[in-house]
């Protein structure tokens, strides 16, 4: 049960399957009385857009319920708590009534836009009394809720976070010739796009603070490392080799500065050859610098936790740029001098 609000049974979301996922969709008492007087009171009835239904949790026999109580985590005035209320044999009340609004269907199955169908229909559940929609924004409950995802009923909620879909549908009275719904088999591009969307969403969801987190502006200078493991008298701490990190970043900055100077001098009619390596320098080190930018800049768009190890792919490209610069600008020196320079650099690293 919730530890706040109504203290009724929790309604949550989580990322794996078990028997707690099943709900029985039933009529309201008024509709049940009308249907009992029909010619075939035992027949299944198709749920249509606009119908009012009740959902009963099949294991605990408690109905999906909402009322004017604030949720445990999202305590805004326009959010209502969603709970499981009742017991086996209890008839419930009007706070268990939800209106089905079908918003999307599968284009290959036109009926799914007017009749509730598993997999194909995306629908909202709007609370009849409170006029709020069943909603989830991926906020997690505290430890007493096993850190599962909070479910609320939100007034004037945006559509994407109030869309639901039936994944599995079972009924002993389902006709033998009933149509079967199934997921479309995605192609390669669809799989890649879906995986990218999921990775982006999960990464952006890591917003809690961490004692070893750092921002991209500090990575090239290696202002902060991070602890991987520790005990009372020893630990493993990630920290880079300063000479390698700093000189590689200097090589990137030097390339940008040199290109800017060359551009300005070209505008004045002075076409420098840069010791005869200008084209090679632009093509090789320029390529590596562009790669460094593409592996570093995107992290500025992320609001999630970031750590020093996120810089490692960009660091690899910066090191290659540094070695490429050193190779090009020492090529006119003697072999012995170049060997001494490389040996000194290796020793410093």
Automatic annotation (TrEMBL):
The protein's name: Uncharacterized protein
**Which organism encodes this protein?**
Linderina macrospora
